[in-house]
Structure formats: C-alpha cells, structure tokens
Amino acid sequence: VQLQASGGGLVQAGGSLRLSCVASGNISSISVMGWFRQAPGKQRELVARMSSYSSTYYADSVKGRFTMSRDNAKNTVYLQMNSLKPEDTAVYYCTASQASWGQGTQVTVSS
C-alpha cells in the first residue's frame, strides 16, 4: 500500500495541526497504522499507533495532546495535534505496519 501524508506546516506554540495519511488501498485489514516523527539529528520515534480494532498507543511526550483516528471508508488515518510545543518540530511519517511509509510532512512549531 502507498501512503500520502499531508497537513504539516508552521504553527506557533500552543497551536494545532491535523495530519492526514491517505492509503492507496484498504486500511481496514492493516493490523497497525502508525505515526512516527524524526527531528534533525535524532532517531525516528513512534508518536502514536492504532490497531485495526482501534486500540491506540501514544508516546508519553504527546499523551493528552495528540489524538490518532482512522476512517476506514476513506482509507485515511489522522493525527490531531493540539497544544503544540517547539519540541514537536519534526518530519512526521505515517506507516502501515512499518512495512510501508509515507513521504513525510514537515511540522514546525515556533516559540
């Protein structure tokens, strides 16, 4: 499956963004959809993941601020990001079971 992420941009601290990831195929059968991010000079890290039965996991650094959701009818997953902090600045990638990866979308949070 091919993934296309979008929705990144420049936002002030405290602001919000919603990332979208559209899949070329049916995501309802994909066991886990996830969002990772990679900041300059740092390793790629898991931000959130959601199973096919909508069980979710969030990294401690984003818990309570980010919400992942999926719309199987649109083959799309979302990452709603609220109360953004400068340390959230990174390229965000969506993935399907870590076998397919989107191209990444830049999120920049200014202080």
Order of helices and strands: EEEEEEEEEEE
Rg over C-alpha atoms, rounded to the nearest angstrom: 13 Å
Average pLDDT, rounded to a whole number, is: 95
Q: Helical element count? A: 0
Low-pLDDT windows of residues: none
**Overall body shape:** globular
Our estimate of the beta-strand percent is over 45%
Q: Structural class of the helices, strands and pairings?
A: mainly beta
Strand segment tally = 11
- Main sheet overview: 7 strands, mixed
How far apart are the first and last residues' alpha carbons, in Å?
37 Å
Helix content: under 10%
Report on the architecture of this protein.
- With 111 residues, the chain is mostly beta strands.
- It has no helices and 11 strands.
- The protein has strands spanning 3-6, 9-12, 17-23, 32-38, 45-51, 56-58, 66-71, 76-81, 90-96, 100-101, 105-110.
- Strands 2, 4, 5, 6, 9, 10 and 11 form a 7-stranded mixed sheet that branches.
- A hairpin with a 3-residue loop joins strand 9 and strand 10 (100-101).
- It starts with a strand and ends with a strand.
Short description:
The chain has 111 residues and is mostly beta strands. Helices cover 0% and strands 53% of the residues. It has no helices and 11 strands.
